[in-house]
Amino acid sequence: MSDTHAQSVAFVRESFIPEQAPPARETGAIRWVRHNLFPTIPNAILTLLALYVIYVLLSGLLPWLLGGVWNAGSLSECREITGAGAGGCFAVLTERWNQLIFGFAFPQTEYWRPLLAFVLLFVAGAPALLPDLPRRLLILTALYPFVAYWLLWGGTILTPVSAFLGVLAGYFAFKATDRWSFALSLGAAVVAAVAVWWVGGWVASQERDFLAIQRIQSRDMGGYMLNMILGTVCISLSLPFGILLALGRQSRLPLIKYVCVAFIEFVRGVPLITLLFVANVVLAYFLPPDTNFDLILRVIIMITMFASAYIAEVIRGGLAALPRGQYEAADSLGLDYAQAMRLIILPQALKISIPGIVNVAVGLFKDTTLVSIISMFDVVGMIRGPILASTDWNGVYWELYGFAALLFFVTCYGISQYSQWLERKLATEHR
Amino acid sequence: MKTTVFLGTASAAMLVAGLAGAQTLSDVQERGTLNCGVSTGLTGFSAPNASGEWEGFDVAVCRAVAAAVLDDPSAVEFVPTTGKTRFTSLASGEIDLLSRNTTWTFSRDNDLKFEFAGVNYYDGQGFLIPKELGVTSAKDLDGATVCVQTGTTTELNLADFFRKNNISYEPVPIETNGEAQQQYIAGACDAYTTDASGLAATRASFENPSEHVILPEIISKEPLGPLVRHGDSEWGDVVRWTLNALVAAEEYGVTSANVQDMASAPGDNPEVNRLLGTEGELGAMIGLDNDWAVKAISAGGNYGELFARHIGEDTPVGLARGLNAQWTNGGLLYAPPFR
Amino acid sequence: MASISDHDTPKRRGFHPGMLLSDTRYRGLTFQFIALIAIICIASWLGWNLMRNFAAAGLNFSYGFLDNPANYDINQTLIDYTSRSSHLRAAIVGVINTLLVAIAGCILATLIGVSAGVMRLSKNWIVARLMSVYVEAFRNVPVLIWILIIGTVVTLSGGAPRDFLTRGGSVEPDRGLFLGSFAFTNRGLYAPAVEVGPGWPIVLGALVAGIVGFFLWRSHVKRTLFNSGKLLPVWPSWVILIAPVVIAELALGSISFIRPDVAANNFNIQGGTLIGKPFIALWLALSVYTGAFIAENVRAGILSVSTGQTEAAAALGLRPRRIMNLVVLPQALRVIVPPLISQYLNLTKNSSLAIAVGYADITATLGGITLNQTGRAIECVLLLMLFYLVISLTISGVMNIYNASVALKER
């Protein structure tokens, strides 16, 4: 066999050729550049165009950032320092830092309170946001609203304590009457809570100075803190309302269904700014003549309405995505409506809805800047109002707008990265 | 859900007991603070300074009223309002008094149901224009682009003026004074129009104020003054006579420096004695202490002192007294007699 | 369940009040009744408060002010409007301006969004990264800040119209008009105006005929392809579209352009068309902002089409371009279009921030100046909401029709 072959084949290689390095244009960086940046002529043009755009952006941005002035009393001082240079005047940020973050009316001695509330937000948020932590820590989350309220608005500690006790009383009343129908035990919870609040409110109004810290009017809040407060409060408030609206929209009771549909479609159909106009110039006419909500509260009401309609639609999507079998399984176990929703449907539907809810939350947080149009001094309002109108800083645009944009970018990008992480995490649990 | 209910109580706690109706004075006294609407920022008239304190000519009116009513010029909650929100804030009772360069007009008085307590600044609408354009009269502005703050009477006067003179223009509506300055400086509009006092304040904040001129034409009458809700005459009287007291004090030479001396014992001038409460019972007639005017004047001084401190010729705003001089000096300030 | 109870117990036992809560047949009614009472109570409470407040302040509810002269001027009016026109007409000017910026914004946003979405999937590393930066930067920063930033950019980037002026021929201008007809200034873009002369109906007719012919030819090509398998060229459709109108115009010469005039006035360029700075700023800001969201939708849509589809089409021998047109896009569109339409809706609603750059949309005229000047807050805000509601419901109606039409093709 081998003989015949030896005769018919002139040459047999008996060893491998030593491996050679690939041609230079097919290795390393050059190959990467050829394949990723210049594979075809249109693509090459696109690459060059992109490089040019990057060059333009950086050549404008870098000297502005690096040559920036961080210490000066006014724009004209800045200009003296930079001369003809392209450096930015970041001194406005250092000089007006407190105003940008806290607004101009917040007492300077009390800055630690919103800061502490902000730090605590992470402590309290962690158990709810990180699925790995023990569930028991959720008590921190439940406590947070009361602590934050006390820290931000001040006054006697009795107010938040009695509010918390009321909730606690409601919770235990609900537990104690668990065997009754859902509606009845809910009623019992409400009665218990209201009773405690009533007593607590009376005590708090008597002992106004018991363990009190300085009271702060909500109109004194401003700057980025106001955006954070509005965002956090409205998003957390709109979740329960959104769930109720979504359930209402799915309800088989025509009246409830159509009321919910009308509400959701109405709110989603108008821009937020018109709702803020309502809060600002209309709502007062619909309240009793002898009452007066302050503006921030009216704004919270309207933004919460706005957000709950959007969250309701997200959750409705989650409810619709659940297989019919889940509903039927709940029915076949003999669970009533409240039980079925609480134990079977909602936990699953909410899990599906998380990305959508986060999207709404990010959008809502960005929309809190609209309050600047109705003369509230959030970070944008501070910039457009007192800071740009002041003699010292008239004409500093990029530094201020850039700073505001950066604040929002960091927050919103952070939230969306978290949501993607959570999505991946929850997705692996299913496999 | 928990947060929901909680915020419910929070809101109940924050409910401020009410206004509207005819007892603003007692409400203010009960509350211990005066809620005063001011503008969101106009140098010299009302603007928060770097430490967040409100300052200015309009702000001083609030402080004087607070001093007269509550004996404490700092017991004022300042509520910043825009052109859009100011009237609703007042009508709904969010504020007790609006002191925000607001023009006294027939329809605001009667259709919007407010009561103007007098005039603290006689103003008129003018035009600010860069010198290099070489314009000397507003009638030469044919074809110009004009920045105007939206939601004010200036917008209407502007339209009337150009229509009357049969010349054309391009309006650029702007929301805040700060943005109007930005547009004007960038050359996006040829002229900026607002009350002459506002123009002076705006020009004062420019880098090179001398490169801009205010045209001589004043195209409107703008009597600016504090206002309160219709139908509460007692409260309206308090504000009106506080303002009158400041004006009269200047006329009679009562200043923040000598008011305590003059109030300590009756002097030779019975009118001053009545004003300062050393003679007669004028305070009781408007439901205040007899030395209410003393307090109001001590808060920041008489009209002339306030003018000089906030918007006078020595300030960056640099306004001359002009129409706002005492009637004895050829101005329009004329306080009715304290009798 | 229902049938059992129908035939069984209740008829024998008759009705007793406890069943209002315990019996599923009545419980729904009970809850609805309670809800109804609650709604009526809340509504009448609000109405009663309104009446008391109005009575106390001596106000009333009336739309009579809409007929009164508005007394203010508007800087961009597509219909005849002077300061003597009524508030109603001012509101209509606002409506038209809103619709204009919304439609122009939707078109530009789609162009930006689709190109950014496709480029983000490109294998070109730099381009893909650049597009990611664009999308993230715009998605994570409030639209109001972008409107303010872009408004400032537009204000500061163009020169003043003054630089172009000859002031009656006495001054040498700093700059000349681009092509003798265009000037980009900080007040907007000056461009030639179009004027139509006699015979314009014929030119218009030719244009319409061209458009009709364009679609007729395309459907003819399609029919021939399906009937006989023969592929006719597509390019004649473009000839059919353009030729009639060009011929008519050449023959009649009824359309003329008026160039901007730099000599007539000391302040502004006169004549021609001015596309105002507020419009440009708002239009760009809304388009670029919404474009970032659309890019994400487009990317998701294209990714949703499985690679198996592309490979199967290639195996059938389709060319790459036809794979995109006939296989990938139709499937991707089904995913892209619904969120795309809701982005259009968002853009329209975001256009209500126009006042931040001084654009006279409906929120600025009716909800801004008219509201301030008349003090009719409730009337104005109600009317404003009604307008946006009608727009939104119309757009979602269109979306439902589209969804129904794609749903039919599903199996």
UniProtKB/TrEMBL annotation, chain A:
<dbReference type="Pfam" id="PF00528">
    <property type="entry name" value="BPD_transp_1"/>
</dbReference>
<feature type="domain" description="ABC transmembrane type-1">
    <location>
        <begin position="224"/>
        <end position="419"/>
    </location>
</feature>
<keyword id="KW-1133">Transmembrane helix</keyword>
<feature type="transmembrane region" description="Helical">
    <location>
        <begin position="224"/>
        <end position="247"/>
    </location>
</feature>
<dbReference type="InterPro" id="IPR010065">
    <property type="entry name" value="AA_ABC_transptr_permease_3TM"/>
</dbReference>
<feature type="transmembrane region" description="Helical">
    <location>
        <begin position="181"/>
        <end position="204"/>
    </location>
</feature>
<feature type="transmembrane region" description="Helical">
    <location>
        <begin position="395"/>
        <end position="415"/>
    </location>
</feature>
<keyword id="KW-1003">Cell membrane</keyword>
<dbReference type="GO" id="GO:0043190">
    <property type="term" value="C:ATP-binding cassette (ABC) transporter complex"/>
</dbReference>
<feature type="transmembrane region" description="Helical">
    <location>
        <begin position="44"/>
        <end position="66"/>
    </location>
</feature>
<protein>
    <submittedName>
        <fullName>Inner membrane amino-acid ABC transporter permease protein YhdY</fullName>
    </submittedName>
</protein>
<feature type="transmembrane region" description="Helical">
    <location>
        <begin position="370"/>
        <end position="389"/>
    </location>
</feature>
<dbReference type="InterPro" id="IPR000515">
    <property type="entry name" value="MetI-like"/>
</dbReference>
<dbReference type="GO" id="GO:0006865">
    <property type="term" value="P:amino acid transport"/>
</dbReference>
<feature type="transmembrane region" description="Helical">
    <location>
        <begin position="150"/>
        <end position="174"/>
    </location>
</feature>
TrEMBL record, chain B:
<dbReference type="GO" id="GO:0006865">
    <property type="term" value="P:amino acid transport"/>
</dbReference>
<dbReference type="Pfam" id="PF00497">
    <property type="entry name" value="SBP_bac_3"/>
</dbReference>
<keyword id="KW-0813">Transport</keyword>
<feature type="signal peptide">
    <location>
        <begin position="1"/>
        <end position="22"/>
    </location>
</feature>
<keyword id="KW-0732">Signal</keyword>
<comment type="similarity">
    <text>Belongs to the bacterial solute-binding protein 3 family.</text>
</comment>
<dbReference type="InterPro" id="IPR001638">
    <property type="entry name" value="Solute-binding_3/MltF_N"/>
</dbReference>
<dbReference type="InterPro" id="IPR051455">
    <property type="entry name" value="Bact_solute-bind_prot3"/>
</dbReference>
<protein>
    <submittedName>
        <fullName>General L-amino acid-binding periplasmic protein AapJ</fullName>
    </submittedName>
</protein>
<feature type="domain" description="Solute-binding protein family 3/N-terminal">
    <location>
        <begin position="33"/>
        <end position="262"/>
    </location>
</feature>
UniProtKB/TrEMBL annotation, chain C:
<keyword id="KW-0472">Membrane</keyword>
<keyword id="KW-1003">Cell membrane</keyword>
<keyword id="KW-0813">Transport</keyword>
<feature type="transmembrane region" description="Helical">
    <location>
        <begin position="278"/>
        <end position="295"/>
    </location>
</feature>
<dbReference type="InterPro" id="IPR043429">
    <property type="entry name" value="ArtM/GltK/GlnP/TcyL/YhdX-like"/>
</dbReference>
<dbReference type="Pfam" id="PF00528">
    <property type="entry name" value="BPD_transp_1"/>
</dbReference>
<feature type="transmembrane region" description="Helical">
    <location>
        <begin position="381"/>
        <end position="402"/>
    </location>
</feature>
<feature type="transmembrane region" description="Helical">
    <location>
        <begin position="29"/>
        <end position="48"/>
    </location>
</feature>
<keyword id="KW-0812">Transmembrane</keyword>
<keyword id="KW-1133">Transmembrane helix</keyword>
<dbReference type="InterPro" id="IPR000515">
    <property type="entry name" value="MetI-like"/>
</dbReference>
<keyword id="KW-0029">Amino-acid transport</keyword>
<feature type="transmembrane region" description="Helical">
    <location>
        <begin position="90"/>
        <end position="119"/>
    </location>
</feature>
<dbReference type="GO" id="GO:0043190">
    <property type="term" value="C:ATP-binding cassette (ABC) transporter complex"/>
</dbReference>
<dbReference type="InterPro" id="IPR010065">
    <property type="entry name" value="AA_ABC_transptr_permease_3TM"/>
</dbReference>
